[in-house]
From TrEMBL:
Every SnoaL-like domain range: 21-120
Protein name in UniProt: Ketosteroid isomerase
Lineage: Bacteria, Bacillati, Actinomycetota, Actinomycetes, Micrococcales
InterPro entries cross-referenced by the UniProt entry: NTF2-like_dom_sf (IPR032710), SnoaL-like (IPR037401)
Keyword Isomerase assigned: yes
Pfam families: SnoaL_2
Alphabetical keyword list: Isomerase
Sample GO molecular function, one term: isomerase activity
Length: 156
């Protein structure tokens, strides 16, 4: 019998740049399972799940997840990890694509996996998006954010 921890470890193995297997990763989910990119408020379902993996591997072909701690608590598996890779492809953002920089990323992340009957029902990825962007050289534009918020408040 496969444990919940083994299912999650297999998911990470299938998402590695050198073994990327989107359909295999998707097969670990329940029919209505979801992959939630929490910092970016994105939810992937069904065939979108392997597409999300492929998109990330397109930007970071050598993507690797260094698992620092894996803790199975019943039907929940909590993982502390670091997402690592080299930025060799376009990285999409709401403002457009960041062209390849060749920079390495090493992003602190925490993932929560909720399983039911040995399959993934919900995968919530909490990566430090601000660290990720800073490592790519795309620091936040706080001045523009303050100006936009000030303008919006004045118009309200």
């Amino acid at each position: 019998m496969t444990t919940n921890e083994e299912v999650v470890r297999e998911a990470y193995r299938l998402a590695e740049g050198d073994t990327l297997d989107g359909p295999g990763f998707r097969a670990l989910f329940t029919e209505n399972g979801t992959f939630n990119d929490m910092p970016n408020s994105l939810t992937f379902r069904g065939d979108e799940i392997p597409q999300a993996l492929a998109g990330l591997a397109g930007a970071f072909p050598d993507i690797h997840r260094e698992l620092l701690g894996v803790h199975a608590l019943g039907d929940v598996v909590a993982v502390e990890l670091r997402i690592q890779g080299t930025h060799l492809g376009g990285f999409p953002t709401p403002a457009g694509v960041i062209p390849p920089t060749g920079r390495r990323i090493d992003v602190p992340t925490a993932d929560l996996w909720h399983l039911r009957d040995g399959r993934i029902e919900t995968f919530n990825c909490y990566n430090a998006a601000n660290v990720w962007l800073a490592q790519l050289g795309a620091d936040p534009d706080f001045e523009a954010a303050i100006t936009a918020a000030t303008t919006a408040a004045a118009e309200a």
